[in-house]
Write a structure and sequence with these properties.
With about 140 residues, the protein is an all-alpha fold. It is built from seven helices and no strands. The longest helix has 24 residues. The radius of gyration is 26 Å and the shape is flat.
Length: about 140
């Protein structure tokens, strides 16, 4: 989805900025503030693309197994001062994912999964019991 500010910028040659901002319920000052930050956004996007290439290099060396914490550690070891949150954001933006170590990684989404107790029981036939000896989801019998 493109931003409303970008829409105003794309159509300002045809319509007045004032009118576009009224229709889109934007403050003109906010639009102009957004417009003044264009160079900074472009520079950040460029730095993110450069970082993404370095991330892909480290990610490829690991055979696609490393996630953001390990990629960050590798980049720091190579002398690049990066923050893990930035690495994670760039990895999300460029669809770079690490291998999952979870045994249930190929399972269907959680909405169709069986309850957790069913997946963890060795027999899978009965739910576990709580400390009072009752199964989860049932109330104790009255005395």
């Amino acid at each position: 989805m493109r931003s409303r500010f970008q829409f105003v910028d794309d159509h300002r040659a045809t319509y007045e900025v004032k009118r576009l901002c009224e229709v889109l319920e934007l403050n003109r000052s906010s639009y102009y503030k957004w417009l003044s930050g264009r160079q900074a956004r472009a520079a950040r996007q460029h730095r993110d693309r450069v970082l993404a290439e370095k991330i892909r290099e480290v990610h490829g060396e690991s055979g696609g197994a490393y996630g953001s914490p390990r990629v960050t550690a590798e980049l720091r070891q190579k002398g690049l001062p990066v923050n893990e949150k930035r690495v994670a954001r760039v990895m999300r933006a460029f669809s770079i994912t690490g291998a999952s170590v979870c045994a249930d990684a190929s399972a269907p989404p959680s909405s169709t999964r069986p309850p957790r107790w069913f997946r963890t029981c060795s027999s899978g036939t009965s739910p576990p019991r709580n400390r009072a000896g009752n199964t989860w989801g049932t109330s104790p019998t009255p005395l």
